[in-house]
Specification:
heterodimer; B: 244 residues; 8 helices; 46% helix; globular
Amino acid sequence: MEESRADRETHRRRDRGDRAPRHRRAAQAQRPASAAIGNDDLLVATGLGSLDLAALVAKLERIWKVDPFLEAVAITEILTVGDLCRAYRDFLHSA
Amino acid sequence: MARQVVVISGGSRGLGAGIAQKCLEAGYIVATFSRSSAPFVEQQRQQDAEAQHFYWTMLDGRDDQGLRHFVAKVRERYGAIDGLVNNAAIGHFGTFPLMRMREIDDSLAVNLRSNMVLARLCVPSMVSRGAGCIINISSVNAVRGSAGVAVYSATKAALDGFTRALARELGPKNIRVNSLAPGYFDSDMVAGLSDRQLRNIVRHTPLQRLGTIDEIADAALFFLSPGAAFITGQTLVVDGGITC
């Protein structure tokens, strides 16, 4: 039986996977679901998108009353979980 | 339901005060600042001495530290920021080749940079909650060229670009960003125009009159309302049809 247009669309979406960028999907695929997150893990591999990171930074600002990315640190320097932790540690120590 | 909090830059007089007034009437909490106080501010502060619904502070939008302190205070006092109206602006009008450098710098600093900095400070609160509404007050001069307003027009057109890019970026977090571009309305901005210029504006306006602050503020209130829940990245021109 010939596939309907709706079926084809469903299969196409399934083949395409979610709408996350390819590099993030690839990074996520390499991680076992239950693996703990370590300092060397790329932030992108944790499934954290840029807006999720912005939300995390906003929440940390509520707790610690600081936002290192407002002036001191360029977000482009933050690639790994460890980079993010270091940015806060350094900023809080220098404050 | 808890009252929503709207930050308005330059909310002491003119359109800013008009938007603040409409927001208060609609049940929003309004937090605003301006370089000096004005009768509207004093009246609100008299009625609400505890600043339960209206908070004002004296602040120049070019003062980054002051803006940071203001936003922190608003979040501490009210908990969240639901809406932002980037209204603060100055108008240095005149022939461009005769304009002083300082006037160019001031226009860019107030009309553009201070509004971007304020948005930078308010957006994290919206991102963490997954909701928000930003309105950038643009101008018909961003849409149409007019002699004598080159720098002002450039700053407002830049705000429109800022609106579209930010709408794309923040849409996934349910934060809407729109521009409101008023035409000529009864305010200090048109007070400097001659009778002949005003007659000329009215003659070229299909609705044959100037707008009112209330009419522009109503459009801002619409953007803040659930009625505009599916509108983002747009510039709404409210000008009696002068640009059509």
